[in-house]
C-alpha cells in the first residue's frame, strides 16, 4: 500500500486547509475554519513530551479533545481517550498495559506556544489510536487502529449514507457542507468514527451540547447525528412541536435494537434513519441499511468482509479490521488472514435478492433455562414489536429449579401492564417467556452507549428477591 489511503495523501486537516482554508471545519461556540484549525492543532502539539502514547482524560472539553487528538497524531503519538467513569481498578489495569505514556487532563494541558514542532509524515498504516472495548466480560482491551482502518470505515459508510463535504467539489470549494454532530463520546469507537467521517469528507464537525434538554436544539443545527434509540424517542416530540425548520436529515442509530415505530415517527419528520452492526475492532460500522422495520442489520459495507463460522459466529476481515491489541507496551497483532471471531451469532437472510445479516445474539449473553439455550435478543426483538416499548433488555435471574429464568427490563411510554406483556409472550417457547417485567431503572449506568447487561442483571436479581 502506498502512502495514500482511500485518496488521502496527507494529514486530512492540513489537506483541507490547503484546498479551502476559509471553509468551516468546526462549528461550535468557537468555530474554526480549516486554516484556523491547523493553527490551533500546531499550538496544541507543543504540550507533548517524548512519551509515545498520549492518554486524554475524557472530561476535557470536546473541542479541546478533538484538537488535541489531531495534534497528537501529527506528532506521531498513539492516543487513548480514557473514560473517567471507569472504576479506579479498571483504569489502573488499563494504564499498566500502556508502557510509557503522557497523561493529559484539565490540570496539565498547558500549551507552550513558542516551541517549534515537528510534524511526522503521513503514514496511514502506523498505529494511531487505541480504543477500549466495553469490558463486559472482563478487563477492557485496548484496540489499535491506524488511519487506514478509520478511513476505510468512513469511505465505506459514506458510499451508502450520503454525507457531503469538500471532497465532492474540491475544485470549487463551497461552504455548504453537511455537518455531523459530535454526539457520542470519543472514548467509544462510534465517537471516533464521527471524527474520521468529517476528516475524510472535508465536511463540518458540529460541537454543541448533547446532554439532556440541550440535545434537541443542537440537533436542529446539524444535518447528521449518531444517536441511541432512547435519545431519538425523547427529541422527536420536541422537534415536531418546533415551528422553525430543522436541518437534520440523517440519523445513524446504534447501541440497541431499533423499534419500527421509532423510525416511522422520524421519517414522518423527514429524518432518514439508518442502522447497522459493528464493533470496536472493526472501526465502528460493518453493515448498514435504511431502517425498515425488519430485524436484520443490512448488508456489509465496502472494504469489509463478513463470514459465518459453522456455528454461526461472525468472522470479520477486511480493511477496517484493527491492527491488534496493545498489551504490555506493544502491539499484539491480529491475523488479517484468520480474521476476528466476534462472539456474535448471526445468519444470512435473502431480502430483495440481496443477502443481509441477521444478528441472533452474543454467545456471551446466552444462558440455560431448564436445559434449553436462551438467547435474550430473541425475546427482546419479540417485545419490541409493541409500539409502547422503546427499549428492553432481557437478563437471567437464578432459579433453583431451572438454573436461570428470563426477566425483561422494559423502557416504555406507558405504564407496564404485566398481563398484556405476559399474553404477548405466549407465542414464545415456554423457556423464553419472562417471569417478570420490570420498569427501566433510574440509576446511573455510566457513559457507555449500550446498557450494561451485567449491571442490569444484578439489579433485576435484587428486585426479584425483594
Explain this structure.
This protein is α/β, with parallel strands linked by helices and 466 residues long. It folds into two domains: 12-359, Rossmann fold, CATH 3.40.50; 366-465, GMP Synthetase, Chain A, domain 3. It has twelve helices and 25 strands. It has helices at residues 12-19, 34-45, 62-74, 88-96, 147-160, 189-201, 214-219, 229-241, 260-268, 376-383, 418-424, 453-465; strands at 24-27, 32-33, 53-57, 78-82, 101-104, 127-132, 142-146, 179-181, 204-206, 224-227, 250-253, 272-279, 284-290, 299-300, 304-308, 313-318, 324-327, 330-333, 340-351, 354-362, 367-369, 372-374, 389-399, 403-412, 437-439. It has a nine-stranded mixed β-sheet. A seven-stranded mixed β-sheet has the order 5-3-4-6-7-17-18, with helices on both faces. Strands 15-16-19-20 form a four-stranded antiparallel β-sheet. It is globular.
Structural class: alpha/beta
Report strand %: 25-35%
Q: How are the strands ordered across the major sheet?
A: 2-1-9-8-10-11-12-13-14
Number of domains: 2
Which radius of gyration do the C-alpha atoms yield? 23 Å
Poorly predicted residue ranges? none
CATH class group of the largest domain: Alpha Beta
Q: Per CATH, which architecture of the largest domain?
A: 3-Layer(aba) Sandwich
CATH domain fold name of the largest domain:
Rossmann fold
Percent of residues in helices comes to 25-40%
CATH superfamily of the largest domain: ANL, N-terminal domain
Number of DSSP helical runs = 12
The best one-word shape is: globular
Task: Look at the structure and give the mean pLDDT.
Answer: 91
Q: How many strand units?
A: 25
Distance between the termini: 61 Å
Amino acid at each position: 500500500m502506498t502512502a495514500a489511503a482511500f485518496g488521502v495523501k496527507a494529514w486530512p486537516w492540513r489537506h483541507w486547509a490547503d484546498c479551502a482554508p476559509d471553509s468551516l471545519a468546526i462549528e461550535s461556540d468557537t468555530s474554526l475554519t480549516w486554516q484556523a484549525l491547523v493553527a490551533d492543532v500546531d499550538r496544541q502539539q507543543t504540550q507533548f513530551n517524548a512519551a509515545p502514547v498520549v492518554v486524554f482524560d475524557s472530561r476535557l472539553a470536546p473541542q479541546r479533545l478533538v484538537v488535541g487528538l489531531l495534534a497528537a497524531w501529527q506528532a506521531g503519538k498513539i492516543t487513548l481517550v480514557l473514560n473517567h467513569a471507569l472504576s479506579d481498578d479498571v483504569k489502573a489495569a488499563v494504564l499498566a498495559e500502556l508502557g510509557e505514556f503522557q497523561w493529559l487532563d484539565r490540570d496539565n494541558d498547558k500549551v507552550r506556544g513558542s516551541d517549534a514542532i515537528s510534524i511526522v509524515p503521513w503514514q496511514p498504516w502506523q498505529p494511531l489510536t487505541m480504543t477500549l472495548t466495553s469490558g463486559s466480560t472482563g478487563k477492557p482491551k485496548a484496540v489499535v487502529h491506524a488511519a487506514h482502518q478509520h478511513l476505510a470505515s468512513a469511505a465505506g459508510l459514506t458510499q451508502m449514507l450520503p454525507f457531503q463535504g469538500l471532497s465532492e467539489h474540491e475544485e470549487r470549494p463551497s461552504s455548504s457542507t453537511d455537518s455531523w454532530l459530535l454526539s457520542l463520546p470519543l472514548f467509544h469507537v462510534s465517537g471516533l468514527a464521527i471524527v474520521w467521517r468529517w476528516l475524510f469528507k472535508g465536511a463540518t464537525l458540529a460541537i454543541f451540547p448533547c446532554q439532556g434538554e440541550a440535545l434537541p436544539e443542537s440537533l436542529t443545527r446539524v444535518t447528521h447525528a449518531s444517536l441511541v434509540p432512547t435519545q431519538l424517542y425523547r427529541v422527536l416530540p420536541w422537534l415536531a412541536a418546533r415551528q422553525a425548520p430543522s436541518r437534520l436529515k440523517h440519523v445513524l442509530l446504534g447501541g440497541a435494537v431499533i423499534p419500527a415505530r421509532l423510525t416511522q415517527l422520524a421519517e414522518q419528520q423527514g429524518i432518514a434513519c439508518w442502522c447497522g452492526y459493528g464493533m470496536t475492532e472493526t472501526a465502528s460500522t460493518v453493515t448498514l441499511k435504511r431502517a425498515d422495520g425488519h430485524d436484520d442489520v443490512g448488508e456489509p459495507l465496502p472494504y469489509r468482509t463478513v463470514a459465518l463460522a459453522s456455528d454461526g459466529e461472525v468472522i470479520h476481515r477486511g480493511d477496517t479490521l484493527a491492527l491488534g491489541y496493545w498489551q504490555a507496551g506493544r502491539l499484539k497483532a491480529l491475523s488479517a488472514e484468520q480474521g476476528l471471531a466476534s462472539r456474535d451469532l448471526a445468519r444470512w437472510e435473502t431480502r430483495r435478492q440481496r443477502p443481509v445479516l441477521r444478528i441472533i445474539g452474543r454467545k456471551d449473553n446466552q444462558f440455560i433455562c431448564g436445559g434449553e439455550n436462551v438467547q435474550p435478543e430473541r425475546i427482546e426483538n419479540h417485545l419490541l414489536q409493541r409500539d409502547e416499548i422503546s427499549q428492553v433488555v432481557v437478563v437471567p435471574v437464578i432459579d433453583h429449579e431451572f438454573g436461570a429464568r428470563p426477566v425483561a427490563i422494559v423502557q416504555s411510554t406507558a405504564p407496564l401492564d404485566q398481563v398484556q406483556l405476559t399474553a404477548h409472550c405466549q407465542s414464545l417457547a415456554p423457556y423464553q417467556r419472562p417471569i417478570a417485567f420490570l420498569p427501566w431503572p433510574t440509576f446511573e449506568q455510566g457513559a457507555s452507549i449500550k446498557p450494561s447487561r451485567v449491571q442490569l442483571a444484578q439489579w433485576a436479581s435484587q428486585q426479584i428477591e425483594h
